[in-house]
Specification:
Blueprint (H helix, E strand, L loop, with lengths): L5 E6 L16 E4 L6 H7 L7 E6 L2 E2 L11 E6 L22 E3 L4 H9 L4 E2 L6 H10 L3 E4 L2 H4 L7 E3 L5 H11 L19 E4 L1 H4 L5 H6 L3 E4 L5 E3 L2 H15 L1
Parallel strand pairs: 1-5, 6-7, 6-8, 8-9
Antiparallel strand pairs: 1-2, 3-4, 3-5, 10-11, 11-12
Helix pairs in contact: 2-5
Bound molecules: zinc ion.
Zinc ion binds next to loops.
Length: 249
Amino acid sequence: MAPERIVVFRFYEELNDFLTKEKKKVPFSYSFKINQTVKDAIEANGIPHTEVDLIVVNSESVNFSYQLNNQDHISVYPVFESIDISPIVKLRPDPLRETKFILDVHLGKLCKYLRMLGFDTYYRNDLEDPEIIDIAFKTHRIILTRDIGILKNGLVTHGYWVRSQDSKLQLKEVIRRFDLQKNIRPFYRCTSCNGRVRKIEKEKIENLLESNTMQFYNEFYQCQSCEKIYWEGSHYKSMRNFVEEIVEN
Ligand SMILES: [Zn+2]
């Protein structure tokens, strides 16, 4: 008779978002292959490894390369849900020093919102998955996507599956997940090109302004990359309200 190869998984908190109904928030059995790693088994259950922060097997924390043994009891925790046990095995390289993002092609609106709040956000609507992964790796960016598949790629170290389909809720979700409240810097980055925006004296750009703008406004900002000019016009107020709404929640 072939030896049994069964482990028991229990996934915690928002990792349940990826599980089928009968596996949500309960321990369940999983029959594994010879030499299967815990990382592979977690992804086989639908959860990208980038969502996982802590794996505990029979009361000890292990890394992704741990090979499953019969009757293992495995608890899997998402980022920020780590319980207090030691020693903890770190699952990925140190957190990226500055929170920078690269967005999947379908998240154009979220890109605009993130830039509006000052976050360094790379976006192009013509990128293929391998390009996104490559740019993320080379420029130390976190991949945000609604496509779980890209996060299962072994080359991805930092990524997050955006749950919501509404772009404002997506923004709130990302801010909460990466704890970005205190890093919000409105009017810091160009929403068109991600460049840095700086205050500029009116005299220096007078020739570029329409007469109405010229007449009614005195405070101007300019993107250092694409030279787009911003001022506290009608957009300003709605943007201000938007920022305040996000900051308060
Ligand atoms: Zn710009």
